[in-house]
Amino acid sequence: xxxxxxxxxxxxxxxxxxxxxxxxxxxxxxxxxxxxxxxxxxxxxxxxxxxxxxxxxxxxxxxxxxxxxxxxxxxxxxxxxxxxxxxxxxxxxxxxxxxxxxxxxxxxxxxxxxxxxxxxxxxxxxxxxxxxxxxxxxxxxxxxxxxxxxxxxxxxxxxxxxxxxxxxxxxxxxxxxxxxxxxxxxxxxxxxxxxxxxxxxxxxxxxxxxxxxxxxxxxxxxxxxxxxxxxxxxxxxxxxxxxxxxxxxxxxxxxxxxxxxxxxxxxxxxxxxxxxxxxxxxxxxxxxxxxxxxxxxxxxxxxxxxxxxxxxxxxxxxxxxxxxxxxxxxxxxxxxxxxxxxxxxxxxxxxxxxxxxxxxxxxxxxxxxxxx
Length: 372
Description:
With 372 residues, the chain is an alpha/beta fold. The protein has 17 helices and ten strands. The protein has helices at residues 14-19, 35-45, 54-65, 70-75, 77-82, 87-103, 125-145, 165-174, 198-206, 221-230, 264-271, 280-285, 296-302, 314-317, 321-332, 336-349, 354-369, and strands at residues 22-28, 106-113, 151-159, 180-186, 212-215, 235-238, 246-252, 258-262, 275-278, 307-309. The chain is globular, with a radius of gyration of 20 Å. The N and C termini lie close together (6 Å).
């Protein structure tokens, strides 16, 4: 007999998707705050907001981000970062983020943020990281007590337009045994190639520390190639514009794959199983895709690319990981097997140690997707 936790129909319902265990790889801490928390902290520190009504503020963030421009999208972070400038607020935001993911059925998540953006009120880089990690661990404890256990790792991010990559890399290494599991660069892509931070990546590789890089969202194939071949990224944040190296034909081949001719970079990414951290709703907002239905994620999945589904910024997109999967089910024809495959792909590409990945897959994820 089936249960609400174990969907048996080909296309799972939104409630079934919410109950299923999921893995989140690309989620910005400063893009997932609760509007009520922003209002409370802003009132305490004197930061002016577009509105002090939490519901209206949530709508404002979504509307402001829904502009089709990555630059305009990034401007919404002025308000979230402004309320993340002291240790107490950072810890609170981190705790709430973990709890929100756990409530959505996420069993492992990687939350990323840029410590250099949280120094306006006198915190040091190390104090920022300590506060966030304390909040993360508190969130894990509260989630376990609520019966929704989750494990969370932190990705320390450097801003690509700044000149602190090596400094932030050293920061990540100092905290690698206290919850920081990887390194990232983020921010405006055009004019700021990943290789500007090559010294940071060389240092991280020398210390056997995992790296993912934002690439192929606002800028195209050269950004992805630079991240992979020059900087040694293990995953690509977004990477949606890899589709520019694919020429699609008509129909499908004898294996059921869409008829397509892949360029050399696309072939490299697919054949080596480089995981793309795709974020459907966010990509539509920033103009990297026209709609969820037409988002390249489905074609890439069908062509054998290693894809994961992510939220990017839950506040700005008014979304959750369950909602992203449900949109793909409703608008792009995904089924339960697609959801499971993307979840296992994300887990396999996570920066968790292999025994922990194996345990999550065997004990939590596979049983939930198995027929009752």
